[in-house]
Fold this sequence. Notes:
alpha+beta
Amino acid sequence: MARKRRPRRLINRYGQTRLYDVTTGAYVCVEQLKMWRSEGFDVIVREVESGRYVTEAVMPSGFDA
């Protein structure tokens, strides 16, 4: 039996601080990311300038605890 994938939220980070939710087309805050993670979403943060994934830098392990 295949496991069900968790829904994802892709977030673009601009200028080291601004977080943009690609799904809704709106800027969000770190608290919103925390809420989505607690609701079961995989939150993925990508730095636009370099293309690097910086999820751990924005939301370290234990962030939503």
